[in-house]
Structure formats: structure tokens, C-alpha cells
């Protein structure tokens, strides 16, 4: 049984490499670049940020009904553009009208500058809603047209985006200039209070 599943996954991978990706290259000439596979053997492509949304629709129309996950990477200061959005998409057999397909997987990577807008995919895959909020919360990428782009992991009044590689290791407190090194470990109230009056 396990061997049959492995054979089906291997066949699906070959079909993504030999059929889906060549068709994607033909549909978006000059906007898609094939990347060599890594040890996980998932076929992957770079997609230009201006066709990120049409490529997502194109893949869903061809059976990639499941958005497995989204993540982001910050390559600062080693690379420009410094950010990448990374999507993992899977074909779902039950959604495949031809039946024989399914279980194929593709990784789509999108390079982004710090303020470059990238369209939400939450209207295509509902799972993207929370994942894109998390990416914005942690990396501060400019995701546009999201229905509710608010903090999801950090408090609402959190300053900055803590998974950026240039984020201070101790958070906003690291930006406070101290008069003396010994002040570092003293209690620093976030809210200034009036000193207690005599008799209170």
C-alpha cells in the first residue's frame, strides 16, 4: 500500500515537472523561472510579483485546490530584494475532474522588496487569510486587499515586526538609550506615574 502511494506521488511529481511547469512557463513568458529542487524533491518556481495573483488562479484552475501553507523569508542583508513569500500548493484527487491526477505539489516563491505590494490570496484559498495576517504581523510585508490585516500573534500595540532580521533582539526596549549600563536591569515602567504624596 505504501509503495503504491509512493509510486503515485513520484508519478505526480514527474507530471508537475514535465507538464504543469512547462505549461506555466508558456502561459507567463518571462515571468516564471524554474528553480532546482532541494532535498525535499518538491518542484519549485520563482514567480514575478506582478503575476503572483494570475499564477495562483491559473494553478487552482488546474487542480491545485489545496494551499498547504505560506511562509516568508528575510534574507537581509545578504540579498535584494530581501523578502520571499513561499507557497506550497497540492493537487487534491477528489477535486480533480479527470480522477487520475492528484497529489502533485509545487512550491511557488515570490521575491519582494520591503514595501512592494503583493495581492492577498485569501479570496482564492480561505486558509490564506490567517496565514497572511501572521506574515504581516511577523515580517510587515505589504499585503494588499486583505479583508482583515491585523495583528494575530503579537499584541495590537506591538511595535515593528519581530521576525525581520534587522529587528532588535530585545524588541523596542533595545532602542532605549540608558544613562548607565546598570540601568539596564532596573524596572522601567511603561506608564509614567505621579510620585505618591505624603500621607497616601
TrEMBL record:
Cited Gene3D superfamilies: NADH:ubiquinone oxidoreductase, 30kDa subunit (3.30.460.80)
Residue stretches making up the NADH:ubiquinone oxidoreductase 30kDa subunit domain: 45-172
Domain of life: Bacteria
InterPro entries attached to this UniProt entry: NADH_quin_OxRdtase_su_C/D-like, NADH_UbQ_OxRdtase_30kDa_su
Pfam families from the UniProt entry: Complex1_30kDa
Matches recorded under PANTHER family: NADH DEHYDROGENASE [UBIQUINONE] IRON-SULFUR PROTEIN 3, MITOCHONDRIAL (PTHR10884:SF14), NADH DEHYDROGENASE UBIQUINONE IRON-SULFUR PROTEIN 3 (PTHR10884)
Family (UniProt): Belongs to the complex I 30 kDa subunit family.
This protein's name: NADH-quinone oxidoreductase subunit C
